Amino acid sequence: xxxxxxxxxxxxxxxxxxxxxxxxxxxxxxxxxxxxxxxxxxxxxxxxxxxxxxxxxxxxxxxxxxxxxxxxxxxxxxxxxxxxxxxxxxxxxxxxxxxxxxxxxxxxxxxxxxxxxxxxxxxx
Length: 124
Fold this sequence. Notes:
By secondary structure, the chain is mainly alpha-helical. It is built from four helices and no strands.
């Protein structure tokens, strides 16, 4: 391999590893979001605010992780689309919110798997 090819390969691998690292961090944060929801104790009147406050804290966190922020925004929209706050009990609301966030983890994992496959195939 000539020097230019090695530089291109290095950049590809560096970016590939960055994507994998960001994906893992995002997944851990989403799993922590779910864990926090499971531990949340509040009234039905306050749960919506508590959940959106948590989402806002994640979106405002440092360092700003774009994939995480985007998945939190997608989750917030999905909360509204699925009318999760129209459930009868706090536990039903929590379970509906957890289902939305779990779906985002699946979406993230599928996208990351595709990127890993493409990167691996390119290197081979």
